[in-house]
Amino acid sequence: MSDQGSAGQRVGMLDVGARNLLRPIAQAPTPPPPVHALGRFGHRVEVVTRAFALRRRERVASPNPRRILIAHHLLLGDTLMLTPLIKKLRTTHPDADIAMTLPRAIAPLYAARPYGLRPLAFDARARATALFREPPFDLALVPGDNRYAWLAAAMRSRWIIAFAGDRPAVKSWQVDRLVPYPEVPGAWGDLVAKLVDGPAPTPYRVAEWRAPPHSEFELPTKPYAVLHVGASSPLKLWAAPRWREIAGWLHSRGLTPVWSAGANETALIDAIDPDRRFVSFAGRLDLPQLWRLLADAEVLVAPDTGVAHLGRIVGVPTVALFGPGSARLCGAGEFWRDAPYRAVTIEPFACRDQRVLFKREITWVQRCGRSVGQCPEHLCMPAIGVVDVQRAIEGLLAADGRLLERQREG
After folding, report:
1. Measured in Å, how far apart are the chain's first and last C-alpha atoms?
2. pLDDT digits (tens, 9 = 90+) for 39-50
Protein backbone atom coordinates (compact mmCIF):
# COMPACT_ATOMS: atom_id res chain seq x y z
CA MET A 1 0.00 0.00 0.00
CA SER A 2 1.65 3.22 -1.04
CA ASP A 3 0.80 6.58 -2.50
CA GLN A 4 2.22 7.07 -5.95
CA GLY A 5 3.87 10.21 -4.74
CA SER A 6 6.22 8.21 -2.52
CA ALA A 7 8.84 7.45 -5.14
CA GLY A 8 11.78 5.51 -3.84
CA GLN A 9 10.13 4.73 -0.50
CA ARG A 10 8.31 1.75 0.93
CA VAL A 11 5.55 3.48 2.82
CA GLY A 12 2.83 0.87 2.86
CA MET A 13 1.69 -2.53 1.67
CA LEU A 14 2.69 -2.11 -1.97
CA ASP A 15 6.17 -0.93 -2.85
CA VAL A 16 6.81 1.69 -5.50
CA GLY A 17 7.03 -1.04 -8.12
CA ALA A 18 3.28 -1.33 -7.74
CA ARG A 19 2.78 1.67 -9.95
CA ASN A 20 3.62 -0.91 -12.61
CA LEU A 21 0.04 -2.03 -12.19
CA LEU A 22 -1.22 1.18 -13.72
CA ARG A 23 0.82 0.50 -16.84
CA PRO A 24 0.49 -3.26 -17.21
CA ILE A 25 -2.80 -3.16 -18.73
CA ALA A 26 -2.39 -0.04 -20.84
CA GLN A 27 -2.69 -0.66 -24.56
CA ALA A 28 -0.89 2.50 -25.64
CA PRO A 29 2.49 3.74 -24.39
CA THR A 30 2.50 6.26 -21.58
CA PRO A 31 1.69 9.67 -23.10
CA PRO A 32 4.22 12.46 -22.77
CA PRO A 33 3.75 14.85 -19.84
CA PRO A 34 1.14 17.53 -20.57
CA VAL A 35 2.16 21.05 -21.44
CA HIS A 36 1.24 22.19 -17.93
CA ALA A 37 3.48 19.56 -16.29
CA LEU A 38 5.39 20.71 -13.24
CA GLY A 39 7.11 17.53 -12.20
CA ARG A 40 6.33 15.86 -8.89
CA PHE A 41 8.28 18.39 -6.81
CA GLY A 42 6.72 21.33 -8.63
CA HIS A 43 3.25 19.91 -8.06
CA ARG A 44 3.91 19.64 -4.33
CA VAL A 45 5.25 23.19 -4.17
CA GLU A 46 2.08 24.42 -5.88
CA VAL A 47 -0.13 22.55 -3.42
CA VAL A 48 1.77 23.65 -0.30
CA THR A 49 1.96 27.27 -1.45
CA ARG A 50 -1.79 27.38 -2.02
CA ALA A 51 -2.50 25.65 1.29
CA PHE A 52 -0.35 28.21 3.16
CA ALA A 53 -2.16 31.03 1.39
CA LEU A 54 -5.46 29.58 2.58
CA ARG A 55 -4.30 28.65 6.07
CA ARG A 56 -6.84 31.06 7.54
CA ARG A 57 -9.54 28.91 6.00
CA GLU A 58 -12.58 28.24 8.12
CA ARG A 59 -11.76 25.13 10.16
CA VAL A 60 -15.10 23.95 11.45
CA ALA A 61 -16.52 20.44 11.69
CA SER A 62 -19.94 20.36 10.04
CA PRO A 63 -22.54 18.07 11.66
CA ASN A 64 -24.08 17.52 8.23
CA PRO A 65 -21.42 17.86 5.52
CA ARG A 66 -22.86 18.53 2.08
CA ARG A 67 -19.58 18.21 0.19
CA ILE A 68 -17.10 15.47 1.12
CA LEU A 69 -13.63 14.85 -0.30
CA ILE A 70 -11.45 11.74 -0.12
CA ALA A 71 -7.93 12.97 -0.89
CA HIS A 72 -5.24 10.55 -2.09
CA HIS A 73 -3.15 9.40 -5.02
CA LEU A 74 -3.00 5.71 -4.17
CA LEU A 75 -2.25 2.75 -6.37
CA LEU A 76 -4.93 0.51 -7.86
CA GLY A 77 -5.38 -2.04 -5.09
CA ASP A 78 -5.29 0.54 -2.31
CA THR A 79 -7.80 2.73 -4.16
CA LEU A 80 -10.23 -0.16 -4.56
CA MET A 81 -9.87 -0.97 -0.85
CA LEU A 82 -11.41 2.44 -0.10
CA THR A 83 -14.79 1.10 -1.24
CA PRO A 84 -16.03 0.39 2.34
CA LEU A 85 -15.33 4.02 3.26
CA ILE A 86 -17.17 5.29 0.19
CA LYS A 87 -20.21 3.14 0.89
CA LYS A 88 -20.26 4.18 4.54
CA LEU A 89 -20.14 7.85 3.58
CA ARG A 90 -22.99 7.39 1.13
CA THR A 91 -25.08 5.55 3.74
CA THR A 92 -24.40 8.19 6.39
CA HIS A 93 -24.76 11.18 4.06
CA PRO A 94 -27.20 10.09 1.35
CA ASP A 95 -27.53 13.54 -0.24
CA ALA A 96 -23.91 14.69 -0.06
CA ASP A 97 -21.66 15.33 -3.03
CA ILE A 98 -18.85 12.81 -2.44
CA ALA A 99 -15.72 13.27 -4.55
CA MET A 100 -12.39 11.45 -4.58
CA THR A 101 -9.05 12.40 -6.07
CA LEU A 102 -7.24 9.53 -7.77
CA PRO A 103 -4.72 8.79 -10.56
CA ARG A 104 -5.97 9.27 -14.11
CA ALA A 105 -5.24 5.66 -15.03
CA ILE A 106 -7.69 4.40 -12.40
CA ALA A 107 -10.48 6.92 -12.94
CA PRO A 108 -12.20 5.03 -15.82
CA LEU A 109 -13.20 2.28 -13.39
CA TYR A 110 -15.41 4.85 -11.64
CA ALA A 111 -17.21 6.01 -14.79
CA ALA A 112 -20.51 4.53 -13.58
CA ARG A 113 -20.11 6.49 -10.31
CA PRO A 114 -20.47 3.70 -7.74
CA TYR A 115 -22.29 4.94 -4.62
CA GLY A 116 -22.68 8.27 -6.41
CA LEU A 117 -18.95 8.95 -6.10
CA ARG A 118 -17.52 11.68 -8.31
CA PRO A 119 -13.95 10.83 -9.40
CA LEU A 120 -11.46 13.69 -9.62
CA ALA A 121 -8.60 12.41 -11.74
CA PHE A 122 -5.30 14.25 -11.58
CA ASP A 123 -1.64 13.87 -12.40
CA ALA A 124 0.71 14.28 -9.44
CA ARG A 125 3.29 15.82 -11.80
CA ALA A 126 1.03 18.51 -13.27
CA ARG A 127 -0.86 21.60 -12.20
CA ALA A 128 -3.94 20.86 -10.12
CA THR A 129 -5.96 23.70 -11.61
CA ALA A 130 -9.16 21.65 -12.02
CA LEU A 131 -8.99 20.50 -8.40
CA PHE A 132 -8.54 24.05 -7.15
CA ARG A 133 -11.65 25.14 -9.07
CA GLU A 134 -13.79 22.86 -6.92
CA PRO A 135 -16.03 24.68 -4.43
CA PRO A 136 -14.98 24.28 -0.78
CA PHE A 137 -15.53 20.93 0.93
CA ASP A 138 -17.14 20.60 4.34
CA LEU A 139 -15.22 17.43 5.16
CA ALA A 140 -12.04 15.84 3.77
CA LEU A 141 -10.69 12.40 4.59
CA VAL A 142 -7.08 11.37 4.01
CA PRO A 143 -6.83 7.57 4.13
CA GLY A 144 -3.14 7.07 3.27
CA ASP A 145 -0.18 9.43 3.18
CA ASN A 146 -0.99 12.57 5.19
CA ARG A 147 0.77 14.78 2.66
CA TYR A 148 -2.60 14.77 0.88
CA ALA A 149 -4.03 16.74 3.78
CA TRP A 150 -2.16 19.62 2.18
CA LEU A 151 -4.01 18.96 -1.07
CA ALA A 152 -7.30 18.90 0.85
CA ALA A 153 -6.37 22.24 2.45
CA ALA A 154 -5.44 23.69 -0.94
CA MET A 155 -8.90 22.61 -2.14
CA ARG A 156 -10.45 24.69 0.69
CA SER A 157 -11.59 21.82 2.87
CA ARG A 158 -13.03 23.12 6.14
CA TRP A 159 -12.33 20.02 8.25
CA ILE A 160 -9.70 17.39 7.55
CA ILE A 161 -9.51 13.94 9.18
CA ALA A 162 -6.56 11.54 8.80
CA PHE A 163 -4.87 8.69 10.62
CA ALA A 164 -2.35 9.59 13.31
CA GLY A 165 1.29 8.55 13.36
CA ASP A 166 2.49 9.57 9.88
CA ARG A 167 6.08 10.79 9.62
CA PRO A 168 7.42 13.42 9.41
CA ALA A 169 4.94 15.41 11.49
CA VAL A 170 4.85 18.27 8.96
CA LYS A 171 2.67 16.12 6.72
CA SER A 172 -0.10 16.34 9.33
CA TRP A 173 0.02 20.09 9.99
CA GLN A 174 -3.17 20.67 8.03
CA VAL A 175 -5.10 17.85 9.73
CA ASP A 176 -7.85 18.95 12.13
CA ARG A 177 -8.55 15.53 13.65
CA LEU A 178 -6.06 12.68 13.91
CA VAL A 179 -7.59 9.23 14.35
CA PRO A 180 -5.42 6.44 15.80
CA TYR A 181 -5.32 3.18 13.89
CA PRO A 182 -7.58 0.57 15.52
CA GLU A 183 -5.82 -1.73 17.97
CA VAL A 184 -7.83 -4.71 16.74
CA PRO A 185 -6.42 -6.43 13.62
CA GLY A 186 -8.48 -6.23 10.46
CA ALA A 187 -8.55 -5.67 6.72
CA TRP A 188 -7.35 -2.25 5.64
CA GLY A 189 -10.62 -1.48 3.85
CA ASP A 190 -12.57 -2.08 7.07
CA LEU A 191 -10.09 0.00 9.07
CA VAL A 192 -10.24 2.97 6.70
CA ALA A 193 -14.03 3.06 7.02
CA LYS A 194 -13.49 3.86 10.71
CA LEU A 195 -12.10 7.28 9.80
CA VAL A 196 -15.70 8.44 10.12
CA ASP A 197 -18.11 7.68 12.93
CA GLY A 198 -21.10 5.41 12.48
CA PRO A 199 -21.91 1.77 11.92
CA ALA A 200 -19.84 -0.30 9.50
CA PRO A 201 -21.14 -0.50 5.94
CA THR A 202 -23.12 -3.55 4.94
CA PRO A 203 -21.17 -6.18 2.95
CA TYR A 204 -20.41 -5.51 -0.70
CA ARG A 205 -22.78 -6.63 -3.43
CA VAL A 206 -21.63 -6.79 -7.06
CA ALA A 207 -24.75 -4.95 -8.24
CA GLU A 208 -23.58 -1.86 -6.33
CA TRP A 209 -20.83 -1.15 -8.86
CA ARG A 210 -21.82 -1.24 -12.53
CA ALA A 211 -19.22 -2.15 -15.11
CA PRO A 212 -17.52 0.82 -16.79
CA PRO A 213 -17.81 1.34 -20.56
CA HIS A 214 -15.04 -0.40 -22.47
CA SER A 215 -13.64 -0.65 -25.97
CA GLU A 216 -14.56 -3.88 -27.67
CA PHE A 217 -12.01 -6.66 -27.99
CA GLU A 218 -12.16 -10.37 -28.74
CA LEU A 219 -13.01 -12.35 -25.63
CA PRO A 220 -11.78 -15.91 -25.10
CA THR A 221 -14.10 -18.83 -25.69
CA LYS A 222 -15.91 -19.80 -22.51
CA PRO A 223 -15.30 -21.29 -20.05
CA TYR A 224 -11.95 -19.72 -19.28
CA ALA A 225 -9.74 -18.79 -16.34
CA VAL A 226 -7.59 -15.67 -16.06
CA LEU A 227 -4.07 -16.18 -14.72
CA HIS A 228 -2.58 -12.78 -13.91
CA VAL A 229 1.11 -13.47 -13.41
CA GLY A 230 2.47 -9.92 -13.02
CA ALA A 231 3.17 -8.38 -9.65
CA SER A 232 4.17 -5.10 -8.06
CA SER A 233 7.54 -6.50 -6.97
CA PRO A 234 9.78 -9.39 -8.06
CA LEU A 235 9.31 -10.69 -4.51
CA LYS A 236 5.63 -11.30 -5.28
CA LEU A 237 6.22 -13.33 -8.42
CA TRP A 238 5.34 -17.02 -8.46
CA ALA A 239 7.67 -19.40 -10.31
CA ALA A 240 7.05 -19.98 -14.03
CA PRO A 241 6.89 -23.80 -13.75
CA ARG A 242 4.12 -23.49 -11.17
CA TRP A 243 2.05 -21.19 -13.32
CA ARG A 244 2.57 -23.60 -16.20
CA GLU A 245 1.42 -26.51 -14.06
CA ILE A 246 -1.70 -24.65 -12.90
CA ALA A 247 -2.54 -23.74 -16.50
CA GLY A 248 -2.24 -27.33 -17.64
CA TRP A 249 -4.28 -28.56 -14.70
CA LEU A 250 -7.09 -26.08 -15.44
CA HIS A 251 -7.07 -27.02 -19.12
CA SER A 252 -7.37 -30.71 -18.27
CA ARG A 253 -10.51 -29.85 -16.32
CA GLY A 254 -12.21 -28.04 -19.17
CA LEU A 255 -11.15 -24.48 -18.38
CA THR A 256 -9.08 -22.60 -20.94
CA PRO A 257 -6.40 -20.53 -19.18
CA VAL A 258 -5.59 -17.08 -20.54
CA TRP A 259 -2.60 -15.03 -19.43
CA SER A 260 -2.64 -11.51 -18.05
CA ALA A 261 0.32 -9.30 -17.15
CA GLY A 262 1.73 -5.83 -17.62
CA ALA A 263 2.90 -4.30 -20.86
CA ASN A 264 6.46 -4.47 -19.55
CA GLU A 265 5.95 -7.95 -18.10
CA THR A 266 5.53 -9.92 -21.31
CA ALA A 267 8.83 -11.68 -20.60
CA LEU A 268 7.04 -13.43 -17.74
CA ILE A 269 4.63 -14.96 -20.24
CA ASP A 270 7.53 -15.93 -22.50
CA ALA A 271 9.09 -17.86 -19.63
CA ILE A 272 5.84 -19.53 -18.56
CA ASP A 273 4.38 -20.38 -21.97
CA PRO A 274 7.17 -20.21 -24.57
CA ASP A 275 5.16 -22.25 -27.07
CA ARG A 276 2.18 -19.83 -26.84
CA ARG A 277 -0.13 -22.66 -25.97
CA PHE A 278 -2.65 -20.25 -24.47
CA VAL A 279 -3.80 -16.73 -25.39
CA SER A 280 -2.05 -13.85 -23.66
CA PHE A 281 -3.66 -10.48 -22.96
CA ALA A 282 -0.47 -9.07 -21.44
CA GLY A 283 -0.26 -5.35 -22.16
CA ARG A 284 -3.29 -5.42 -24.46
CA LEU A 285 -6.08 -4.22 -22.17
CA ASP A 286 -6.87 -1.08 -20.24
CA LEU A 287 -8.62 -1.32 -16.87
CA PRO A 288 -12.23 -1.27 -18.16
CA GLN A 289 -11.33 -3.98 -20.68
CA LEU A 290 -9.70 -6.02 -17.94
CA TRP A 291 -12.93 -5.70 -15.95
CA ARG A 292 -14.78 -7.11 -18.97
CA LEU A 293 -12.35 -10.01 -19.27
CA LEU A 294 -12.74 -10.87 -15.59
CA ALA A 295 -16.52 -10.58 -15.66
CA ASP A 296 -16.96 -13.71 -17.80
CA ALA A 297 -14.10 -15.71 -16.28
CA GLU A 298 -14.76 -18.75 -14.12
CA VAL A 299 -11.83 -17.93 -11.85
CA LEU A 300 -9.00 -15.42 -11.47
CA VAL A 301 -5.64 -16.42 -9.99
CA ALA A 302 -3.22 -13.60 -9.19
CA PRO A 303 -0.54 -12.55 -6.74
CA ASP A 304 -1.37 -9.94 -4.13
CA THR A 305 -1.84 -7.09 -6.62
CA GLY A 306 -4.43 -4.54 -7.67
CA VAL A 307 -5.84 -7.04 -10.15
CA ALA A 308 -6.74 -9.39 -7.28
CA HIS A 309 -8.65 -6.53 -5.64
CA LEU A 310 -10.38 -5.76 -8.92
CA GLY A 311 -11.51 -9.39 -8.99
CA ARG A 312 -13.45 -8.84 -5.76
CA ILE A 313 -15.09 -5.72 -7.20
CA VAL A 314 -16.12 -7.54 -10.39
CA GLY A 315 -17.29 -10.59 -8.45
CA VAL A 316 -15.20 -13.20 -10.26
CA PRO A 317 -14.06 -16.09 -8.02
CA THR A 318 -10.58 -14.94 -7.05
CA VAL A 319 -7.57 -16.78 -5.65
CA ALA A 320 -4.91 -14.37 -4.35
CA LEU A 321 -1.36 -15.52 -3.57
CA PHE A 322 0.22 -13.73 -0.61
CA GLY A 323 3.97 -13.87 -0.10
CA PRO A 324 5.45 -10.77 1.54
CA GLY A 325 2.03 -9.12 1.89
CA SER A 326 -0.51 -9.69 4.61
CA ALA A 327 -3.59 -11.73 3.76
CA ARG A 328 -5.31 -10.19 6.76
CA LEU A 329 -4.57 -6.57 5.86
CA CYS A 330 -5.31 -6.95 2.14
CA GLY A 331 -7.88 -9.70 2.38
CA ALA A 332 -11.66 -9.72 2.16
CA GLY A 333 -12.36 -8.58 5.70
CA GLU A 334 -15.93 -7.93 6.74
CA PHE A 335 -16.88 -5.81 3.75
CA TRP A 336 -16.03 -8.50 1.18
CA ARG A 337 -16.85 -11.43 3.45
CA ASP A 338 -19.42 -12.76 0.97
CA ALA A 339 -17.13 -12.44 -2.07
CA PRO A 340 -16.01 -15.65 -3.84
CA TYR A 341 -12.44 -15.23 -2.68
CA ARG A 342 -9.61 -17.31 -1.27
CA ALA A 343 -6.27 -16.07 0.06
CA VAL A 344 -3.42 -18.56 -0.26
CA THR A 345 -0.59 -17.85 2.14
CA ILE A 346 1.74 -19.53 4.60
CA GLU A 347 0.97 -18.46 8.16
CA PRO A 348 3.00 -17.74 10.15
CA PHE A 349 6.06 -16.92 8.09
CA ALA A 350 9.15 -15.94 10.05
CA CYS A 351 10.32 -12.96 7.99
CA ARG A 352 6.87 -11.47 7.54
CA ASP A 353 7.66 -9.50 10.65
CA GLN A 354 7.52 -5.77 9.85
CA ARG A 355 4.92 -3.62 11.61
CA VAL A 356 4.94 -0.49 9.46
CA LEU A 357 1.91 0.67 7.49
CA PHE A 358 2.11 4.00 5.66
CA LYS A 359 5.11 4.87 7.88
CA ARG A 360 3.02 4.21 10.98
CA GLU A 361 4.12 1.67 13.58
CA ILE A 362 1.17 -0.64 14.31
CA THR A 363 1.83 -3.43 16.79
CA TRP A 364 -0.39 -6.10 15.23
CA VAL A 365 0.67 -5.60 11.61
CA GLN A 366 2.74 -8.43 10.14
CA ARG A 367 4.04 -7.85 6.63
CA CYS A 368 7.28 -7.53 4.69
CA GLY A 369 8.27 -4.47 2.71
CA ARG A 370 11.87 -5.44 2.09
CA SER A 371 13.52 -4.82 -1.25
CA VAL A 372 15.02 -7.45 -3.52
CA GLY A 373 18.45 -6.45 -2.26
CA GLN A 374 17.36 -6.93 1.34
CA CYS A 375 15.69 -10.26 0.60
CA PRO A 376 17.63 -11.98 -2.20
CA GLU A 377 16.23 -15.45 -1.45
CA HIS A 378 12.56 -14.39 -1.13
CA LEU A 379 11.29 -17.64 0.35
CA CYS A 380 7.65 -16.73 0.96
CA MET A 381 6.27 -17.08 -2.59
CA PRO A 382 8.16 -20.34 -3.32
CA ALA A 383 6.59 -21.71 -0.14
CA ILE A 384 3.17 -21.61 -1.85
CA GLY A 385 2.71 -24.94 -3.58
CA VAL A 386 0.72 -25.85 -6.65
CA VAL A 387 -1.50 -28.10 -4.57
CA ASP A 388 -2.36 -25.16 -2.29
CA VAL A 389 -3.59 -23.15 -5.25
CA GLN A 390 -5.43 -26.09 -6.79
CA ARG A 391 -7.33 -26.68 -3.57
CA ALA A 392 -8.31 -23.00 -3.38
CA ILE A 393 -9.56 -23.06 -6.98
CA GLU A 394 -11.52 -26.26 -6.43
CA GLY A 395 -13.11 -24.85 -3.29
CA LEU A 396 -14.17 -21.67 -5.06
CA LEU A 397 -15.58 -23.42 -8.11
CA ALA A 398 -17.49 -25.89 -5.98
CA ALA A 399 -18.94 -23.09 -3.87
CA ASP A 400 -19.68 -20.85 -6.83
CA GLY A 401 -21.32 -23.60 -8.85
CA ARG A 402 -21.30 -21.75 -12.16
CA LEU A 403 -18.87 -24.07 -13.89
CA LEU A 404 -20.53 -27.18 -12.47
CA GLU A 405 -23.91 -25.96 -13.72
CA ARG A 406 -22.51 -25.27 -17.20
CA GLN A 407 -20.90 -28.68 -17.28
CA ARG A 408 -24.23 -30.27 -16.43
CA GLU A 409 -25.94 -28.23 -19.16
CA GLY A 410 -23.30 -29.43 -21.61
Report:
1. 43
2. 888 898 999 888
